[in-house]
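Please review the protein record below. Tell me whether the encoded fold seems credible here:
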Amino acid sequence: MPEPNSLVPEVKAPTERPPRQFQFSLGGMIVFLLVICLIGSHLRTSWLLYDANQTLKRYRTEFGHLSIQDPSRTYVLAVDPHQELTWQWRVYIPPGQKHELCSIFRDIPVIEHEPDDLAFPKQRSSHQPIDDGELLITTSIQRDGQDRWRFHQVIQYAQGKRTDTYWVVRDKDMAPIISDETFNRVRGAVAGTSQMAFDGGNNVLLLKLQALPPMTTVTDDKNAGLMFWLSPIDP
């Protein structure tokens, strides 16, 4: 008769297997690298497209490209002429509308708050009619060597037409304005800013400069400065 202990089955302790290491097949590695390359290519293309759009926008602003979204409105875009005491604007005037290019020195409406920019003087130092369409306006101020300052305005039309206008101001009259060639406040279309749109039949402010009084003066002449604007002509 067998002994009691011989009837108990023998239980073997489970053998420990080493942990299974992560395996990466060659095909999976190729797919992973392909996805990474596609993501990198997409990000690079998106960045290049964004940078190109920003550069194009900057060039359009710098070289004066007008975007006419509504042909019934007047558009103005300031262009940097890269010259001192020179200002330049690209302008679009709707068909059938007539304007005058007006300017004044010394007696400009005071610049204190934004609503004051809506005031336009009745007196004008110069004014000349301009036709409708797209045109380039250039205004410059230079000394003429005879104790005078010469204003020069050039209007160039897209069709090739050009008009030049000159007038002079005595040096003593211009001294309070540009003795330091600096200005205290500026309003209007300034180079580097986006184009502006105006409804037809309204005055269009191109630029208003309030002069910085000379250091030798005691009084603060708030009306000393320059102003250029477009004034509609009634048909």
Remarks:
- The longest helix spans residues 26-63.
- The mean pLDDT is 76.
- The two ends are 135 Å apart (CA to CA).
